[in-house]
Fold this sequence. Notes:
The chain has a nine-stranded mixed beta sheet, sandwiched between helices. The protein is α/β, with parallel strands linked by helices. β10 (224-227), α7 and β11 form a beta-alpha-beta unit. Helices cover 28% and strands 20% of the residues. It has a single domain, classed as Rossmann fold, CATH 3.40.50.2000. The protein is globular and about 45 Å long.
Amino acid sequence: MSEKKILIIADQISPFVGQSPMADYCRQLPQSIQELGNDIRTFMPKWGHINERRNQLHEVIRLSGMNLIIDDTDHPLIIKVASLQSARIQVYFIDNEDFFQNRLLVTDKDGVEYEDNDERTIFFARGVLETVKKLRWNPDIIHCHGWLSALIPLYVKTAYKEEPAFRESKIVYSLYEQAFKQNFHDKYPDIIPTKDMTPGDIGTFDSPIDYNAVMKKAIEFSDGVICNAPVIDASLPAFAKQKGIPVLEGDAMTMSADAINDFYNTL
Length: 267
């Protein structure tokens, strides 16, 4: 297959956050996939502990300035960018005072999970997709890593399905070990829809809305699933197979970029 445009969305990318299996993998994957002849864009959240001066982040004014409404509240969208110079890859950061500035990933400094983690998934997903639209760059593959991007597949296949940027996109969702323990609020399905969606577009979530329920909703709207950890709840890839969705099993972190690229090509 000829050069593909691949959008990689991750909760963590090194060196902007401390080392972790996801952060290290999502630093190497874009470079490796790019070296196979593909065009890459990467997105992640601008977590509060990211040092903007050290990492040379700067705001992209032309991409910032939109307000996203979640549960009747306006949240300004701020876009920043930095470069992985050795890889010639730009990383775009989704930022917002309410959801990311001065805040960590899943829990606060005392280990308490944030009460609005569910709303953060909505803001992050919509923020990424609105920014890609403004870039006028149409990805062939959208590869999502982490719980924060769990709504990307749903939005692409519903609210954004007629957008030229995403009309032909295939979505790959990578599964990781459980990232949060506190269930999302019961109102979560009610605050997901945009003006271009109906509640019927979302369907139903398992109750309670726990980590697996959120992952299953991501899987349901994806075109392919990759196992990105040695230990994953077996019910998740089984759910994908039940839905007829291709699954790349094993631990993808130990696989070559060629194997991942080949999986993209099958879609």
